[in-house]
């Protein structure tokens, strides 16, 4: 099986000389299709830096990264943007929905540049909204939705392109307990359908849902615990 993520000797240094910050100091990580991985660690341990590398949002100082078989280092900016668009669905703490644009149009947005016509675009966006349990909110604006609902719209938007990887940075950081459970329920469902998920979090609540927990400390992976194999029953 081709790994979704294959990272080796990944390093990231911000700045140089005496003020250099070694945010990642040699990270090796392989994530197989269908895995649900939580990356945990204290504030400042390098989680967001790692996410930026995994998401091709920033380039490492050293080390290799293959995303769904593609070697990231060999790509130019344009190819990288394309790879990111095709392979990764991002979910952020702050939802990042477009205001004054309804839920359906928000979900449709990543498909606008895909060359897909309006009809099929709509149908795929509606299917993604249905997957997160929000078919009945398609015409609502973000500010007419609860935080949990807004984040589910963001999940639908991340899924609509059929990405190889769902990458989430503190997705429940702005949510209350009930909304957190809603969003985690959606993650469970889409992972059960085979979607690969990597979620960065400092909440045990979130990590409990993942099948594998990777702990980062001071720019290094210090533990990697598999709780449940891909495809194993809960
Ligand atoms: P976490 O997400 O786990 O809180 P980060 O990856 O944000 O950790 O940060 C890891 C280290 O790198 C910290 O010491 C932080 O101050 C530093 N850092 C992060 N981003 C930058 C940047 N753009 N420039 C300089 N230092 C940074
Ligand atoms: Mg962070």
UniProtKB/TrEMBL annotation:
Gene Ontology MF annotations: ATP binding; ATP hydrolysis activity; transmembrane transporter activity
Xref: Pfam families: ABC_tran
Ranges for domain ABC transporter: 5-233
Matches recorded under InterPro entries: AAA+_ATPase, ABC_transporter-like_ATP-bd, ABC_transporter-like_CS, ABC_transpr_LolD-like, MacB-like_ATP-bd, P-loop_NTPase
Keyword Kinase appears in the UniProt entry: no
SUPFAM superfamilies per UniProt: P-loop containing nucleoside triphosphate hydrolases
Keyword ATP-binding: yes
Gene3D superfamilies associated with the record: P-loop containing nucleotide triphosphate hydrolases
CDD domains linked to this entry: ABC_MJ0796_LolCDE_FtsE (cd03255)
Gene Ontology CC annotations of this record: membrane protein complex; plasma membrane
PROSITE patterns in UniProt: ABC_TRANSPORTER_1, ABC_TRANSPORTER_2
Sorted UniProt keywords: ATP-binding, Nucleotide-binding, Transport
Coiled coil: none
Protein name (database record): Putative ABC transport system ATP-binding protein
UniProt source species: Amycolatopsis saalfeldensis
């Amino acid at each position: 099986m081709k790994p979704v993520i294959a990272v080796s000797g990944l390093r990231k240094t911000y700045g140089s000389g005496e003020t250099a910050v070694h945010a990642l100091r040699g990270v090796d990580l392989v994530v197989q299709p269908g895995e649900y991985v939580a990356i945990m660690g204290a504030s400042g341990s390098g989680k967001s830096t790692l996410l930026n590398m995994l998401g091709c949002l920033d380039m490492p100082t050293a080390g290799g990264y293959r995303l769904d078989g593609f070697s990231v280092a060999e790509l130019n900016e344009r190819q990288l943007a394309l790879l990111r668009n095709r392979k990764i669905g991002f979910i952020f703490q702050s939802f990042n929905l477009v205001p004054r644009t309804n839920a359906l149009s928000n979900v449709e947005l990543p498909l606008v540049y895909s060359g897909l016509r309006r009809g099929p675009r709509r149908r795929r966006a509606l299917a993604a909204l249905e997957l997160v349990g929000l078919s009945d909110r398609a015409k609502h604006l973000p500010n007419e939705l609860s935080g949990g609902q807004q984040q589910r719209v963001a999940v639908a938007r991340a899924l609509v392109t059929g990405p190889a990887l769902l990458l989430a940075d503190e997705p429940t950081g702005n949510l209350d307990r009930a909304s957190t459970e809603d969003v985690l329920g959606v993650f469970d469902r889409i992972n059960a359908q085979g979607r690969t998920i990597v979620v960065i979090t400092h909440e045990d609540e979130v990590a409990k849902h993942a099948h594998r927990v990777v702990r980062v400390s001071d720019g290094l992976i210090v533990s990697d615990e598999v709780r449940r194999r891909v495809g194993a029953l809960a």
